[in-house]
Model the fold of this input.
Amino acid sequence: MDIKSHLSPMLEAHYHATQSTSENVLELACYQVLSSMRLPSALAAGLLAAPLALAAPVTAPVTVTVTVQPTTVISEKVVYTVTVTGSCLAPTTHTTPPTSVSATTTSSALNTNPYPTSTLLGSDTQGLNDLAKATGKLYLGTAADIPGPELSDVGYMTLLNNTHEFGQLTPANYMKYEYTEPQRGVFNYTGGDVILDVAEANGQLVRCHNLVWYNQLPYWLTSQTWDNATLISIMTNHITNLVSHWRTRCYCWDVVNEAFNDDGTYRSDIWYNTIGPAYLPIAFAAAAAAAPPSVKLYYNDYNIENPGVKSTAAQNLIASIKAQGIRIDGAGLQSHFIIGETPSQASQMANMAAFAALGVEVAQTELDVRSPTLPPTIAQQKQQEVDFYSSVAACVMTAACVGTTLWDFDDTYSWIPSTFPGQGYGDPWFEPAGTDTLVKKIAYDGIVDALTGQTVATS
Done:
């Protein structure tokens, strides 16, 4: 296993805070800086549990440098060595408990995709969200991993705030379990509030993501064995607190994320292995009890975008939950595709129709189309335009499809290279000159054509 491919460069970062008052305030600042570090919860919790020797005296500005290095693999888990230095701390080295090696679905690490010498650029100037709403859709939106380095990227934030392009935002990471409940019964809403504040200032909808998933769980939850009743209580308490806290600030919630294997069987994880398949209706019942009626409740998954055993499993789940009298309102089709392997428009439409027949709305929740090789060829760039067209057009032509969300719009912040080494180029924009300068690819034109009823050449 290539451990490095699972690590974001954000795991090696500098965190700075400046204070100018008493020594006690400066000491507190050290711990505040450490507690706000952008690290997986197991690492941060392990680090904060270690003895930290304050420098004597503590001086301003408070500076902490954190270096994380994987050292050992134990049964698909990694032991990390975390070294801390800075103006407020004596050098500290801490070895974490074993933590799962699993890539997050979005990383804010800056990517340096090798772009082709000849990049086919987009020429359309019409805003995607404006065009989507003109077709009767609620939005065309994007995910964003903020708070993060994106907040200081002027070009990125200018486009994110442009409601002609984006009418909806999804928090890529900061509403997930490890961030929102880092300790049992202790909730942190700060990260989620940041993107909600951005969206509300712009008048953008927010798809809140997510409540129950097998990944990005806090160490306190995964490091011990729970009995059925206790884990149900933990899960429903988490759901109730998040849904009750953010209420109608969310257009919808992805209540359960990625519960199935590609063969349609249930995924083996902490929820299924302890509670069994009943955890899904229990989760939706808890969400429905806490959510205002206007907040939609979704099941969200990948590889359920065209007919097949996994899509059928998701449809059977929705039908079963409805048969129990429990509210479920939508199916989220993630739509992470590969150039040249994207399902046809007809296939995607047929699949959407099957979900809609169950009485739920559908949405494309995480659309990107990655190149399997870098840099992409001219032919691959043209095919990417076709693939974006096919996907968005399927939503346009399906009344039950409420909108499309890109899984970030800028390759600089894409999750793809860290999860699929050697692949990338999956978004409609890129930054050829670094931050602050965004350029549309020809893929953008494919989306515009789908939204305006135009056709795209297939070769």
DSSP finds 15 helices and 16 strands in the chain.
